[in-house]
Amino acid sequence: MKALNVVLIGPPGSGKGTQAELLRDKNGFVHYSTGEVFRDHIARKTPVGLQVEEYVTSGRLVPDDVVLRVVNAFMAEHAGKPTLFDGFPRTIPQAEGLDEVLAEQKSAVDMAVLVDLPDDDVVKRLTARRQCRKCSKIFNLTFKPPKVAGVCDDCGGELYQRKDDSDTVIRDRLSTYHKQTEPVLHYYSEQGKLKRIDGALGRDRVYEEITRLISAA
Ligand code: AMP
User: Fold this and answer.
1) Which atom of ligand 1 is nearest to the CA of 12?
2) Which of 73-82, 116-125, 140-149, 179-188 has the lowest mean pLDDT?
3) pLDDT range class, residue 163, cuts 50, 70, 90
4) Burial 82-113 (b: 16+ CB within 10 A, else e)
5) Residue 141 C-alpha to ligand 1 middle, in angstroms?
6) Residues known to be catalytic
7) 120 pLDDT higher than 80
8) Residue 2 has pLDDT above 70, yes or no
9) Structure confidence at residue 78 (pLDDT)
10) Å from CA of 63 to ligand 1 middle
11) Domains held by the chain: number
């Protein structure tokens, strides 16, 4: 598989996190999820965690300067490694910030993949989503239930429902996505880097499509 920097974009619950895990495990990408990074900071009660907690639990976007500070620290550590950005960039200033830091490393975003899903499907999926507290693996009570209720198949950790996966917060996250993140699609489309995949195809077909796109790049 080619060593590319790939940005995964999509509404919450489109399955981009699951795809990112697959691409990390099977294809050797570094997986970078700003959402995971923030949840980790919140759990450890770090200064960044305290600063972002209110935003993350209410489903609002963390301010760009905070996001870019965290991303720049990550990039300094992982310079030159092919990376899959999951849930970042979510605004135009973030997309520009990523271009800048990559340019400093003589690198660039090679491809942006939109994993698309209609709003009603998003709500259905997210209210059934559960995540492992220990290893962050994602389950879905409808499509991918754990073997034992409430327990992670992989590590035995406790499964929980994210606070921002409640019905009203999901609606807010969707409206934020349409307003602030959709312009990022145009940003990459104008550069000829945007590919679209139908997220309703399901985990395996979406994975096949993404790997096909990356191989053909
Ligand atoms: P996610 O796990 O990607 O759905 O992110 C969960 C939450 O973390 C979001 O609803 C935001 O509050 C915050 N977050 C994650 N990534 C970003 C980002 N790139 N920009 C702003 N906020 C973010």
Assistant:
1) 4
2) 73-82
3) confident
4) bbbbbbbbbbeebbebbbebbeeeebebbbbb
5) 23
6) 16, 90, 129, 162, 173
7) yes
8) no
9) 84
10) 10
11) 1
143, part of any domain: no
Tell me the C-alpha distance between 30 and 92, whole Å. 23
Q: Which of 21, 39, 57, 61 to mutate to test the pocket of ligand 1 (most atoms within 8 A of CB)?
A: 61
Domain holding 72, by residue range, is: 5-117+172-216
pTM given for the model: 0.87
Measure the CA dihedral 205/200/9/193, to 10°: 60
What distance lies between CA 1 and its chain's CA centroid? 21
Question: In this structure, what CATH number is given to the domain that contains residue 84?
Answer: 3.40.50.300
8 in Cβ contact with 85 (< 8 Å): yes
Q: Whose CA is nearest to atom 19 of ligand 1?
A: 88
Distance from the alpha carbon of residue 89 to the mean position of ligand 1, in angstroms: 9
Residues with CB under 6 A from ligand 1: 12, 34-35, 38, 55-56, 59-62, 67, 87-90, 94, 164, 173
Q: How far is the CA of 98 from the centre of ligand 1 (A)?
A: 16
Within a domain: 132: no
Residue 161 identity: Q
Six-digit token string for 75: 């990039």
Which strands, in side-by-side order, build the sheet including 129-132? 138-140, 129-132, 159-160
Residue 189 placed within a domain: yes
Task: Evaluate whether residue 65 is within a structural domain.
Answer: yes
Protein residue with its CA nearest to atom 15 in ligand 1: 35
Helices 64-77 and 92-104: angle between axes, nearest 10 degrees: 20
